[in-house]
Amino acid sequence: MRPVAAMDYFMRNRLLAWFSERIIGIIPIKRGAGRGEDPLADPEAALAAGDILVIFPEGTRGEPEEITRFKKGIARLAERGPEVPVVPVFMHGLGKSMPKGAFIPVPLFLDVFVGAPRCWGGDRNAFMRALADDMQHLREEGHFPDWE
Predict the structure, then answer these.
(1) Pairing of strands 111-114, 89-92
(2) Does position 147 have pLDDT exceeding 60, yes or no?
(3) 121: pLDDT confidence band, cut at 50, 70 and 90?
(4) pLDDT at 37 > cutoff 50
(5) How far is CA 36 from CA 13, 31, 40, in A?
(6) What is the Cα–Cα distance from 28 to 6, expressed in whole angstroms?
(7) Got the DSSP string for 98-122?
């Protein structure tokens, strides 16, 4: 399991970069990539290699327990790997357990709600709406699905 994380934050010095890549196993992504750059190349390669990715679709940490507008990178990645399911996960309490700027988590309980897997359906906007709806449902209802 490998988190996709902002290069400008997690690679800002050599010690943090070493820890982020060697211990956590992040896939650094360049936010605001310029023309000709493909910020999704490394996450796409990781998926092709069978890695499980952790992606925060908002693209940044917002206010704790609040869902903000998703970036379209998650849909672009799903489009490139239509056979790879996207599993929505809502975590409640993360803002208290790992506040912004913290390096070590505070030992508090988290609630983690897992939704049903969703696969690419062929339309970027529809995928984004469905994923946002899934997350909102998990936030409001908070349950674990009955999977076979």
Answers:
(1) antiparallel
(2) no
(3) very high
(4) yes
(5) 26, 14, 12
(6) 6
(7) S-TT-SS------EEEE---B---S
Amino acid making up residue 38: D
Residue 101 burial class via C-beta count within 10 angstroms: exposed 0-12, middle 13-18, buried 19 and up: exposed
Q: 94-98 long-range CB contacts below 8 Å, 24 or more apart?
A: 94/64, 94/65, 95/63, 95/64, 95/65, 96/64
Ordered DSSP codes for 4-37: EEEHHHHTSSHHHHHIIIIII--EEE-TT--TT-
- Determine how many CB atoms are found less than 10 A away from the CB of residue 25: 14
Q: Are 43 and 53 in contact (CB under 8 A)?
A: yes
Cβ neighbours of residue 147 closer than 8 Å, sequence gap 6 or more: 116
Q: How many CB atoms lie within 10 A of CB 125?
A: 9
Which of 94, 3, 128 shows the shortest CA–CA distance to 56?
3
